[in-house]
Structure formats: C-alpha cells, structure tokens
Amino acid sequence: MLYTEDINSKGLIQLQKMITLLNGSQLEVGLTGAQNRSVIMLPTVKKPVTGQEAETLKLWGVDPELGAKFIDGLSGEFQILYFDYEGHYMAHPHPEHFTPEYIVQDLLRIADQMNVNRFSYYGYSWLALIGLQLALRTDRMESLIMGGFPPYEGPYEEMRVVTTKTYERALKQHEESGKIHSAEALMKVEELSPDQLDWDNVELKIDPAQTKQFATLYQGLIDFDDQRIQTQLNIPRLAFAGERDTIVYGEKFGSVTVDIAGRLQKHKPVLENLGWTVEIIKGADMDHTKAMQPSTVLPIIHPWLKAHLG
User: Judging by DSSP bridges, how do beta strands 79-82 and 26-33 pair with one another?
Assistant: First the structure.
C-alpha cells in the first residue's frame, strides 16, 4: 500500500495513501493543510492536466487545474481530504451497486483509513446530493456545502429519467457498434465546445457500465423525500448555484428540464428558515459548469467555512 507523509516548505502536512474501496479497487487519497485544523472532504479533486486535454477542458469552461486550486485556496487554514471519486468510478465502474448507501460507506471508509474522525464536506452536482445522504447517515460531519444541486425539492425524478435514458442510449450504441469508448477518450478527441454540439443527436460512445452507475444512483433515491428530512440536519449548511443553472433535455433524454437555480431560488426563504445559507450566483453565463469553477466557488465557501469552523 502506498503511504507517504511529509511537511512541505509552508509547514503544511502532506499525506498520500492508496485506499481499497468496497469494490476492491484502489483510490489515491491525499490529506494536506494546516495541522490541527478542521478537515474538509473534497471528493471532486481531479489531477491537473496539460496540453490538448487542458485546452479541451477550457473549451467547455472547465479549469484544468480545478482540483489544485481548491486545495491551494483552502489548505492554508484547513486540512483538505481530497480525491477524485467520480473519475475513479468512471475508470472502475460498479453499475449494479452504485447506491447512496454504497457511496456513503465508501466515503466513511476513506475517512477511517485516513484517520479522519470529523470533517466538513463540499460536493458539486451529484456529489452534492451525496453530501446530503452522508449527513443523514453519520454524526461525524461538522458542516455541509452543496453546490449545483438544491437540498429541498431536488430534481431526483428528472435526473432518474435523464440517467436512465443516457444508459439506454449508451447501451444501444455499444450494441450497434460493438465497441466501448471511455469517457476520457471521448473527451480527448472531441474538440468542440458545448455550444457547437447538437445535444439531441450526439452519440454516446461510452461504456454503458459507466452510465448505468448513475441510473442506479437515482433509482435508489426514488423514494427519498428531502423535505421530511430537514429537521434531522443540525450542522451548518450552505447551498449555492449559478442563476443560469437550468438544463433542458430533448426527447432522446426524456424531455425533462433540470432547473437547479429555479428550485433553489423558489425555496430560498424556506431553506433559510430551516437554517441553510443560500447563495444564487449572479451572471448571464453562470450555468452549471461556470458555477463550479474555483474562481467562482472559493469566494463563497472560504469565508463561510471560516465563519462556521473558526
């Protein structure tokens, strides 16, 4: 098992470890930051990329150093427990068992093996809703930040439809072509920006097992009522989204609208009365992708964490 520990030139701890997850695969996990400070779990940290891959990400509005910038922006005052959970399961799909309970067990296993007892959590999009599931299943969380997914009347049914349709299309494409392409390989060769794509007619050249994971996840949330559980949450909580975070899916993806911003704005008074801090990030281009970039997120979550964790 890989295990390294060091103190860098800034006096920050740096620990790297390979953690064996529930499905037997190994995930590289890091812990860095100021010693004896509160821990923030970041399951969204991808390794920086360069060259053409970085340029492609920029076309899609994604900072190729997104993960590193989050770590740099927070590690001076907190310890950061970081890893690329989504990327790992795209490389090691586990489609039949990717339920909320399974993912929560994975995350708690990571915390255990990194000797982290209590922690805050920041997740974006589907990893935001996982943070809510985690908060309901453990008493080890100190605070919760959900970006790009509303914690009240979340679009679970719409996402179940979209992910199921995505899986069905990927499976059909695979059966017709007899080939499987990884999502990473698709990104490397696709150099078009999102506004150049015809989303209703784009072919999904990815492994059906990758897409089925998310259909399994949302199927597992079909009976989840995020209104009834609000009184179970007694930790500091922040929810945010870009004001343009609304995605309209065509017929091939179920003809549904996933309105993240609209739902968060609609229920902002209710959420604030329940103890949430709610931020709607203004900007004509502040869509789902833009609102997850470090330059947008850090000015919101950094002062909030300082205020609530000290």
Answer: antiparallel
Rounded to whole angstroms, the Cα distance separating 258 from 242 reads 13
What is the amino acid identity at position 54? A
Strand pairing class (257-259; 276-281): unpaired
| Domain-embedded: residue 165 | no
Residue 193 confidence (pLDDT): 39
Q: Is 126 left (phi over 0), alpha (psi -120 to 50) or beta?
A: alpha
pTM: predicted TM-score of the whole model, two decimal places: 0.88
Residue 52 pLDDT level (bands cut at 50, 70, 90) = low
Tell me how far CA of residue 43 lies from CA of 83, 264, 281, 288, in angstroms: 5, 23, 22, 18
One-character DSSP codes across 247-267: EE--GGGTS-EEEHHHHHHHT
Beta bridge partners of 80: 32, 40
Q: What is the pLDDT of residue 1?
A: 43
pLDDT above 70: residue 179: no
Instruction: Provide the number of structural domains found in the chain.
Output: 1
- The predicted-structure confidence for 119-136, as pLDDT tens digits, reads as follows 999 999 999 999 999 999
- Give the model's confidence band at 67: pLDDT under 50 very low, under 70 low, under 90 confident, else very high: confident
CB 130 within 8 A of CB 123: yes
Alpha-carbon distance 48 to 234, whole Å? 35
Asked, for residue 28, whether it belongs to a domain, the answer is yes
Instruction: Specify the 3-state DSSP secondary structure of 272.
Output: helix
> Which residues does 302 contact at the CB level (< 8 Å), separation at least 6?
73, 74
289 is in which domain, residue-wise? 3-153+224-246+260-309
Give the domain CATH number at 130: 3.40.50.1820
With beta carbons less than 8 A apart as the criterion, state whether 126 and 217 touch: yes
